[in-house]
Known about the structure:
Blueprint: E1 3-8, E2 14-27, E3 32-38, E4 43-47, E5 50-54, H1 59-72, E6 78-83, H2 88-93, E7 101-106, H3 109-119, H4 125-130, E8 137-141, H5 144-150, E9 154-160, H6 174-183, E10 184-196, H7 201-212, E11 217-223, E12 232-239, H8 249-252, H9 273-278
Parallel strand pairs: 6-7, 6-9, 7-8, 9-10
Antiparallel strand pairs: 1-2, 2-3, 3-4, 4-5, 10-12, 11-12
Amino acid sequence: MPMEFIEWYPRGYGVAFKVKEKIFEGHSKFQKIEVYETEGFGRLLALDGTVQLVTEGEESYHESLVHPVMLAHPNPRRVLVIGGGDGGTIREVLRHEEVEEAIMVEIDEEVIEVAIKFIGIDGGLLDKMMKGECKRAKLIIGDGVEFIKENSGFDVVIVDSTDPVGPAKMLFSREFYERAYEALNDPGIYVTQAGSVYLFTDELVTAYENMSRVFDKVYAYSFPVIGYASPWAFLVGIKGDLDFRKIDLERAKKLNLKYYDPENHETIFQMPRYVREMLKP
């Protein structure tokens, strides 16, 4: 019998992969960590039974999380990443030559260690950050919620967390958005993944409403992500005078992206009609 990994979403919906073998299983003080070798999508990283990425196609998530907001900001020199222990988000952030300092705050050091040993999508960046050898990026092992209370001066804040349910729920609260708003420069831009458009619709709407009470403007967009119950939702909060619908195409030309297409940026704003109507201010 072939092995398989299935992540079950609400209402009995599942995303499944055929698996060759289990590479790793362990428990940190925060969560269960698993790594599998799949038949057609490289290695799969799961936390508490939820797919974080598959190495063949992970860019579909990391590109769509990072580059729209980075290209919408006129000069993203200082960036904060909360979460993202697999290294994909910070990797994409540093592709922007304008970035002078990127700080990554990850609560679970063991996720980073597993990513370094078994995943490797960061190209050696995480190991350098762990050793303090990366000039433009700094790694902090800690709670992003607490970190953002005491630190500010960021042009862009990117939250690469687990789904907007359970332990990560605080990252989708009005209180956290208020902290994030205060931590941003003016102009500044904030982005978070916000779960499956179809299966976490209520959570998406609640997060959108909470952000709308804090940020000057809020945008919702979606992107098809390999390994997730697509389309996947993202929420953007603006501080100051920025238009997220406009991006710097000249800077985009330097990136040579695989999934997110800056020249067709407007396509990411497509949402099912019923969701769009629920997200009206």
